[in-house]
Amino acid sequence: MSEGLVRGEGFAIDASVIKADANRARGVPGSETTDWRKGVGTTRAVREYLDALEEINAVQDEDADPPQPPAPGKNVSLTDPAARWTAAPGGPAFYAYSTNYLIDLDAGIIVDVEATPTHRTQEVESTKTMIDRVQERFGMKPNRLVGDTAYGTAAMLEWMVEDKGIAPHVPVWDRSERKDGTLSSSEFIWDEQANEYRCPQGHALLSDRRQFTTPRDRVTKAGTLLYSASQHDCTGCPLKQQCCPNMPNRRIMRSVHERSREVAREIATTPQYKQSRRDRKKVEMLFAHLKRILKLDRLRLRGLTGAHDEFLLAATAQNLRRMAKRMFDGQQGTALMPA
């Protein structure tokens, strides 16, 4: 930061999988109950894993509705139980951790790193940890955050837009677009004031079409509201075969965070967004350098703490290398300038 290599205007986030120091054969099914305390003494990695479980249980005892941890993987390592059983496309399964990089887009400097088990939800959630930590340590918060579709969930976009005031340069995670030739939800017009959708034929889709004696918020566990058309309207509609051929009436699920999703969609149409997609390659290049040049394709330490220590040291080495190269090139340029 003192050398001017970190501007704080734009950050990028991504994760990369690194193999854990755990033998594939030394594992048990995730559904199997294991007595981890059995034996003369437990290793540091196992103790760390058990302490994390006890902390989760304590939170569940205090809070009636705590966030649920991811379910155990298909296999759990006996030597490093916090590592996640995963597999690359077309390759054998293995135990692994993910290194999560938060980089400044100006010179590709890593501003924070977090180790997580290889699980998409935990990788995405680590973004909040790193953004808050950088803001607390350095008083720095980016104007825009660049990431791939994994970071485009409704809840994550809501956190960026509403909680942090960060422009999400992230593709929206959207499964509403249909590929079978029928009408997608984007072809229905949303009316904010009337709280309804209008289909191409002008019929209304409402969320409160059915009345209950006891009022309900109608929000599903997935954080969505269901808007449905009248069956009478759909039965005689000329577009029924294009709209809902296998259902009596058309239904649309709308996220409670849809406003933040719309903000991300609008940003995706700007030239700045196209530049952000190109800038995101900087974090991918760092991961390539980490594995091919620094040879960190397998960890030497076990446990989440061990993984974090290795990832942090590797990121520090990458930053020092980047800074030395920039400063050396700058000095060379100064020496070669004409008097």
Describe the protein's architecture and organization.
The protein has 339 residues and is an alpha+beta fold. The protein has 2 domains: 194 residues, no CATH class; 72 residues, no CATH class. It contains 9 helices and 13 strands. Strands 1, 4, 5, 6, 7 and 8 form a 6-stranded mixed sheet that branches. A 5-stranded antiparallel sheet has the order 9-10-11-12-13. The chain has a two-stranded antiparallel ribbon with strand order 2-3. The C terminus is likely disordered.
What's the total helix number? 9
Task: List the helices and strands in order.
Answer: EEHEEEEHEHEEEEEHHEHHHH
Round the Cα radius of gyration to an integer and report it.
25 Å
Number of domains: 2
Q: Which stretches of 5+ consecutive residues score pLDDT under 50?
A: 63-69, 333-339
Number of strands: 13
Helix content class:
25-40%
Main pleated sheet: 6 strands, mixed
Provide the β-strand percentage band. Answer: 15-25%
Helix/strand class: alpha+beta
CA-CA gap between termini = 30 Å
Backbone shape: globular
Mean residue pLDDT:
84
Quick rundown:
This protein is of the alpha+beta class. It is built from nine helices and 13 strands.
Provide the descriptors you would attach to this structure in a database record.
339 residues, alpha+beta, five-stranded antiparallel β-sheet, single chain, 2 domains
Layout of strands and helices, then pairs:
Elements: E1 10-19, E2 27-29, H1 44-62, E3 75-77, E4 84-87, E5 93-104, E6 109-117, H2 120-138, E7 144-146, H3 154-164, E8 167-169, E9 189-191, E10 196-198, E11 204-206, E12 224-229, H4 231-235, H5 240-243, E13 251-255, H6 258-267, H7 271-279, H8 281-292, H9 303-336
Parallel strand pairs: 1-7, 7-8
Antiparallel strand pairs: 1-5, 2-3, 4-5, 5-6, 9-10, 10-11, 11-12, 12-13
Helix pairs in contact: 1-9, 3-6
